[in-house]
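Late entry, evening session. Most of the bench is empty. Finally got around to the prediction I had been postponing all week. Sequence below, unchanged from the version circulated by S.P.
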Amino acid sequence: MATLSDKLILFLGGALLLYPHWQDNSFIHIFALLAAVTFFCLCSYCNLECQRLGQLPNVSRWLLAAMCLSLAGLSLVHPAFGCFLPLLFYELAAAIRHWGILASCLLPFLSFRDWPGFYPFAALLLFLLAWLFACKTARLLELERKFQFLRDSSTEYQLLLQQKNKDLIEKQDHEIHIATLKERNRIAREIHDNVGHMLSRSILQSGALSAINQQENMQQPLNDLKDTLSLAMTSVRESVHGLHDGSIDLESAVSELLSGLAGYQASFAYDMGRFVPAPVKYCFISIVKEALSNTARHSNATELTIVLREHPSLYQLMVKDNGTAASLGGSGMGIANMQERVKHLNGILSISTEHGFQIFVSIPRKEA
């Protein structure tokens, strides 16, 4: 918009220069006005944002040069066209921005050679105005481009910061989750090693007292004590198993299995929620362990891929290597154990030997 207003002012200035001679030859003056309007529009189309000549596309560059040469040539043919030389100077000042364009200041003296002597100097005043307009507009557009760059950079950095904050929060949540699982595992071990052993000893002691007891009135209380201790032992055992099952992190367990297998290019993709049923965890860990064992012992594979995904209706596991069918390991107990575990959860296990060895397991969530 700034360039259009600049050119409109210069166009009006050129029209004022032409006005005193309007009655001399109206046809050539109308043609000069039309040529100026055409020059105005085409140059605006080629370089609306006052870019340097080297920044313009080749087509725009050649069209702009042709228009400038055409107006300069017409100005030498008739002074009416010379009235609009400030538009040409503006385009040169915007596109070239070099002191060499001052050579174009000779054009008014050549164009107005048959008109009164003040016309070249009036045109030079418009040249000076065009120079100031070009410098002002170029600086304004440069500031606008810098502002847009800073705005886009700020938006990009803000989005990047949001993503990093999100990743950091997810990492912190994962670390808290792992720490919680480790603490549950520690509590389960403490209960098992301390409380469980003391209850076992109490049960043995109550049984021994009941065996050596000679008083009839003490037999029933001792039996009740033994039953109470046995019930407490059962509750502790169930609690310990519940804590231990909940303390297993499937992603960490599979990662540890992969880290213990050296000499392979391994990739692991995990896309499951935090709360996976314990039977599914044990099933997947067992299958991964057996598959990795078969790969290490029987396969000539060099690459390993493990994918764990959770879908709305099922859990999926895929273990794949680029080895030969020897990864089956003779289809022995390992494969049978995998099939038995998956069948127990009403799942499906399939084995493929095309393009490497692959185990694919899907377990329904409602069954898990």
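Two things to note before I forget:
The chain has a mean pLDDT of 77.
The chain has three domains: 2-146, 178-246, 250-364.
Will write this up properly tomorrow.
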